[in-house]
Amino acid sequence: MLNLIAGLTLPSSGVLLCADREIPGPGPERAVVFQNHSLLPWMTCFGNVMLGVEQVFGRKEGKVKLRARVEAALEMVHMAHAMHKYPHEISGRKKQRVGIARAFAMEPRILLMDEPFGALDALTRASLQDEMNGVMAKTGATVVMVTHDVDEAVLLSDRIVMMTNGPAATIGEILSVELERPRDRLVLAHDPKFAEYRAAVFEFLYRKQMKKAA
Q1: CA–CA separation, 130 vs 2, rounded Å?
Q2: Among candidates 5, 8, 97, 2, which has minimal Cα distance to 49?
Protein backbone atom coordinates (compact mmCIF):
# COMPACT_ATOMS: atom_id res chain seq x y z
CA MET A 1 0.00 0.00 0.00
CA LEU A 2 2.83 2.41 0.80
CA ASN A 3 4.42 1.64 -2.58
CA LEU A 4 1.13 2.45 -4.30
CA ILE A 5 0.77 5.78 -2.50
CA ALA A 6 4.44 6.59 -3.13
CA GLY A 7 3.95 5.88 -6.84
CA LEU A 8 6.61 3.17 -6.84
CA THR A 9 3.97 0.60 -7.82
CA LEU A 10 1.10 1.36 -10.17
CA PRO A 11 -2.39 -0.05 -9.48
CA SER A 12 -3.58 -2.96 -11.62
CA SER A 13 -6.97 -1.26 -11.86
CA GLY A 14 -8.51 2.02 -10.76
CA VAL A 15 -6.54 5.13 -9.77
CA LEU A 16 -5.00 6.67 -6.65
CA LEU A 17 -5.61 10.35 -5.95
CA CYS A 18 -3.54 12.81 -3.93
CA ALA A 19 -5.16 16.24 -3.41
CA ASP A 20 -7.69 15.30 -6.14
CA ARG A 21 -4.94 14.58 -8.67
CA GLU A 22 -3.99 11.14 -9.97
CA ILE A 23 -0.68 9.71 -8.73
CA PRO A 24 1.33 8.95 -11.91
CA GLY A 25 4.55 7.95 -10.14
CA PRO A 26 6.96 9.13 -7.41
CA GLY A 27 6.84 12.82 -6.49
CA PRO A 28 8.29 15.22 -3.89
CA GLU A 29 4.87 15.79 -2.30
CA ARG A 30 5.11 12.21 -0.97
CA ALA A 31 8.19 11.41 1.15
CA VAL A 32 9.14 8.04 2.62
CA VAL A 33 10.76 7.08 5.94
CA PHE A 34 11.95 3.48 5.78
CA GLN A 35 12.33 0.80 8.47
CA ASN A 36 16.06 1.31 8.08
CA HIS A 37 17.23 4.93 8.27
CA SER A 38 18.75 4.53 4.75
CA LEU A 39 21.39 7.21 5.33
CA LEU A 40 24.34 7.33 2.95
CA PRO A 41 27.39 6.46 5.08
CA TRP A 42 29.82 8.73 3.20
CA MET A 43 27.70 11.83 3.89
CA THR A 44 27.26 13.72 7.14
CA CYS A 45 23.82 14.11 8.70
CA PHE A 46 23.69 17.55 7.10
CA GLY A 47 24.65 16.12 3.72
CA ASN A 48 22.03 13.38 3.89
CA VAL A 49 19.25 15.89 4.53
CA MET A 50 20.64 18.32 1.96
CA LEU A 51 20.48 15.57 -0.68
CA GLY A 52 16.69 15.47 -0.46
CA VAL A 53 16.34 19.24 -0.15
CA GLU A 54 18.42 19.87 -3.30
CA GLN A 55 16.29 17.44 -5.29
CA VAL A 56 13.10 19.35 -4.43
CA PHE A 57 14.20 22.99 -4.07
CA GLY A 58 17.64 23.13 -5.75
CA ARG A 59 16.44 24.85 -8.91
CA LYS A 60 14.25 27.38 -7.09
CA GLU A 61 16.35 28.48 -4.11
CA GLY A 62 19.91 29.60 -3.42
CA LYS A 63 22.41 27.87 -1.17
CA VAL A 64 21.56 30.06 1.84
CA LYS A 65 17.89 29.07 1.76
CA LEU A 66 18.71 25.42 1.16
CA ARG A 67 21.06 25.39 4.14
CA ALA A 68 18.42 27.08 6.30
CA ARG A 69 15.91 24.36 5.36
CA VAL A 70 18.34 21.61 6.34
CA GLU A 71 19.26 23.24 9.64
CA ALA A 72 15.59 23.84 10.51
CA ALA A 73 14.71 20.20 9.81
CA LEU A 74 17.57 18.88 11.95
CA GLU A 75 16.66 21.32 14.72
CA MET A 76 13.06 20.09 14.64
CA VAL A 77 14.15 16.53 15.48
CA HIS A 78 16.80 17.73 17.98
CA MET A 79 19.76 16.76 15.80
CA ALA A 80 21.32 20.17 15.05
CA HIS A 81 24.24 19.34 17.35
CA ALA A 82 25.16 16.34 15.17
CA MET A 83 24.72 17.83 11.70
CA HIS A 84 28.42 17.43 10.84
CA LYS A 85 28.72 13.88 12.15
CA TYR A 86 28.64 10.79 9.94
CA PRO A 87 26.04 8.01 10.42
CA HIS A 88 28.57 5.64 12.03
CA GLU A 89 29.23 8.27 14.73
CA ILE A 90 25.64 8.40 16.03
CA SER A 91 23.21 5.89 17.55
CA GLY A 92 20.43 4.05 15.71
CA ARG A 93 17.85 6.30 17.36
CA LYS A 94 19.62 9.41 16.10
CA LYS A 95 20.00 7.97 12.61
CA GLN A 96 16.24 7.49 12.46
CA ARG A 97 15.75 11.09 13.56
CA VAL A 98 17.92 12.23 10.65
CA GLY A 99 15.86 10.09 8.28
CA ILE A 100 12.69 11.79 9.55
CA ALA A 101 14.35 15.20 9.21
CA ARG A 102 15.30 14.43 5.59
CA ALA A 103 11.71 13.53 4.78
CA PHE A 104 10.17 16.59 6.46
CA ALA A 105 12.76 18.95 4.94
CA MET A 106 11.18 18.19 1.56
CA GLU A 107 7.89 19.64 2.88
CA PRO A 108 5.77 16.72 1.68
CA ARG A 109 1.99 16.76 1.78
CA ILE A 110 2.10 13.11 2.76
CA LEU A 111 4.77 11.34 4.80
CA LEU A 112 4.88 7.57 4.33
CA MET A 113 6.43 5.58 7.16
CA ASP A 114 7.21 1.86 6.98
CA GLU A 115 7.46 0.67 10.60
CA PRO A 116 10.10 3.35 11.28
CA PHE A 117 10.53 2.44 14.96
CA GLY A 118 10.22 -1.34 14.66
CA ALA A 119 13.92 -2.15 15.10
CA LEU A 120 14.39 0.02 18.19
CA ASP A 121 14.25 -0.89 21.87
CA ALA A 122 11.10 -0.02 23.83
CA LEU A 123 12.38 3.17 25.51
CA THR A 124 13.91 4.55 22.32
CA ARG A 125 10.74 3.69 20.42
CA ALA A 126 8.60 5.52 22.99
CA SER A 127 10.84 8.58 22.85
CA LEU A 128 10.68 8.78 19.04
CA GLN A 129 6.91 8.24 19.08
CA ASP A 130 6.57 11.27 21.35
CA GLU A 131 8.87 13.29 19.10
CA MET A 132 6.86 12.17 16.08
CA ASN A 133 3.68 13.51 17.67
CA GLY A 134 5.42 16.85 18.16
CA VAL A 135 6.74 16.99 14.59
CA MET A 136 3.29 16.16 13.19
CA ALA A 137 1.80 19.02 15.20
CA LYS A 138 4.43 21.47 13.91
CA THR A 139 4.22 20.55 10.22
CA GLY A 140 0.56 19.62 9.77
CA ALA A 141 1.54 16.95 7.22
CA THR A 142 -0.59 13.87 6.66
CA VAL A 143 1.26 10.76 7.86
CA VAL A 144 0.53 7.22 6.65
CA MET A 145 2.32 4.73 8.86
CA VAL A 146 2.46 0.95 8.70
CA THR A 147 2.79 -0.61 12.15
CA HIS A 148 2.10 -3.90 13.90
CA ASP A 149 2.18 -2.21 17.33
CA VAL A 150 -1.37 -1.64 18.60
CA ASP A 151 -0.38 0.91 21.26
CA GLU A 152 1.64 2.86 18.69
CA ALA A 153 -1.32 2.90 16.31
CA VAL A 154 -3.70 4.29 18.94
CA LEU A 155 -1.18 6.78 20.33
CA LEU A 156 -0.25 8.35 16.98
CA SER A 157 -3.31 7.95 14.79
CA ASP A 158 -6.49 9.82 14.00
CA ARG A 159 -7.64 6.84 11.95
CA ILE A 160 -6.52 3.21 12.08
CA VAL A 161 -7.04 1.24 8.87
CA MET A 162 -7.03 -2.46 9.70
CA MET A 163 -6.22 -4.89 6.90
CA THR A 164 -7.51 -8.41 6.28
CA ASN A 165 -5.16 -11.34 5.76
CA GLY A 166 -2.99 -11.41 2.64
CA PRO A 167 -1.82 -12.02 0.04
CA ALA A 168 -5.03 -10.47 -1.39
CA ALA A 169 -5.47 -8.16 1.61
CA THR A 170 -8.25 -5.60 1.68
CA ILE A 171 -9.41 -2.96 4.15
CA GLY A 172 -11.20 -4.78 6.96
CA GLU A 173 -12.25 -1.96 9.28
CA ILE A 174 -11.48 1.72 9.81
CA LEU A 175 -11.40 2.99 13.40
CA SER A 176 -11.56 6.73 14.12
CA VAL A 177 -9.42 7.65 17.14
CA GLU A 178 -10.97 10.66 18.83
CA LEU A 179 -8.35 11.42 21.47
CA GLU A 180 -7.43 15.05 22.07
CA ARG A 181 -4.05 16.38 21.01
CA PRO A 182 -1.38 16.87 22.24
CA ARG A 183 -1.31 13.32 23.58
CA ASP A 184 0.54 12.28 26.72
CA ARG A 185 1.23 8.54 26.89
CA LEU A 186 1.23 8.52 30.70
CA VAL A 187 -2.17 10.20 30.85
CA LEU A 188 -3.56 7.96 28.09
CA ALA A 189 -2.46 4.86 29.99
CA HIS A 190 -5.30 5.60 32.42
CA ASP A 191 -7.79 6.89 29.84
CA PRO A 192 -10.81 4.58 29.33
CA LYS A 193 -11.16 5.74 25.71
CA PHE A 194 -7.55 4.70 24.95
CA ALA A 195 -8.28 1.26 26.41
CA GLU A 196 -11.48 1.08 24.35
CA TYR A 197 -9.69 1.82 21.07
CA ARG A 198 -6.91 -0.59 21.96
CA ALA A 199 -9.44 -3.34 22.68
CA ALA A 200 -11.23 -2.71 19.37
CA VAL A 201 -8.01 -3.22 17.40
CA PHE A 202 -7.11 -6.38 19.34
CA GLU A 203 -10.61 -7.73 18.77
CA PHE A 204 -10.26 -7.24 15.01
CA LEU A 205 -6.81 -8.89 15.00
CA TYR A 206 -8.11 -11.82 17.08
CA ARG A 207 -11.09 -12.36 14.77
CA LYS A 208 -8.75 -12.20 11.78
CA GLN A 209 -6.42 -14.83 13.24
CA MET A 210 -9.33 -17.12 14.12
CA LYS A 211 -10.68 -16.80 10.58
CA LYS A 212 -7.22 -17.57 9.15
CA ALA A 213 -6.88 -20.65 11.37
CA ALA A 214 -10.30 -21.92 10.29
Answers
A1: 23
A2: 97
DSSP sequence for 109-161: SEEEEESTTTTS-HHHHHHHHHHHHHHHHHH--EEEEE-S-HHHHHHH-SEEE
Q: Domain residues for 192?
A: 154-214
Can you state the angle between helices 122-139 and 92-105, rounded to 10 degrees?
Answer: 20
Percent of the chain at pLDDT exceeding 70? 97
Are residues 169 and 98 part of one domain? no
Q: Quick one: CA dihedral 87, 89, 95, 99, positive or negative?
A: negative
Tell me: the pLDDT tens digits for 74-125?
Answer: 998 889 999 999 999 998 888 988 988 898 888 888 889 988 877 677 887 8
Would you say 164 and 170 are in contact if contact means Cβ atoms under 8 Å apart? yes
Whether residue 137 is found in the same domain as residue 158: no
User: Pairing mode, if any, of strands 159-163 and 171-176?
Assistant: antiparallel
DSSP reduced 3-state for 32: strand
Q: What is the pTM of this model?
A: 0.80
- Answer yes or no: are the C-beta atoms of 178 and 36 closer than 8 Å: no
